[in-house]
Task: structure prediction
Amino acid sequence: MTVVQSLIDLQEVDGRIRELELELKDLPRRKAQETARLSGVSADLQAAKTNQELANQRVKGFEEDAKALREKIQQLKTTQMGLKSNKEYQQYSIQIDLVSHDLEATENSQLAAMDDLPSAEARIADAQAKFDQEAGGVKAFCDEIDERIAAVTAELAEAQKERAEKAKLVTDPRFMLYYERLRTKRWPVVVTLTHDGVCDGCHLVQPPSVSQLVDHNAGLVACTMCGRILYRDI
Ligand SMILES: [Zn+2]
Result:
């Protein structure tokens, strides 16, 4: 096996490693996106709950007001019983009427406020159902992602082992060094020199001398433009 061929074999494994690493980077991002979507649904549910709490508070407020007014009427009536003069008695009757009127208005407001309660509860039920459904879907999705992360991690470990084996087969350390340096900047590192003498990496036409060197298998031949290692695919 030529040194270039051993590099091509190494590059094949490195290509797989690159893809696995990219996927491993992308998977947690996809998981985070789904979780973020769920927090939007959770906010809807929270808003529905707050809305119901406010509706309950309104009902309770009117209830307390009505209770205070009833007590006031009772007080006025008790005082009225002990009054001696007719004039005072009538003044109290007028006051009792006024407070009774307030009480009626407050009771009506309480009833109106109570009418809002069923729809507030229905809104919570809807939001809860939607949340439960979404949460189930998101959980299933995240479980799948976790499984995939585990599978990719295992595959990556396998590929790394394979890479170590392939690297041992690259017998010329200069080729190896060159390949490793270029790998982070140019991908793929080893490319074909086409029959028209064009680098398949950057598509620059190479001088005839380069083609001759490649054809005569004269060591490491690099593209004059991008520096990729050139070989002839026969
Ligand atoms: Zn090139």
About this structure: The beta strands are 190-192, 229-231. The longest strand covers residues 190-192. Residues 199, 201-202, 204, 223, 225-226, 228 surround zinc ion (CB under 6 Å). Residues 86-168 form the longest helix (83 residues).
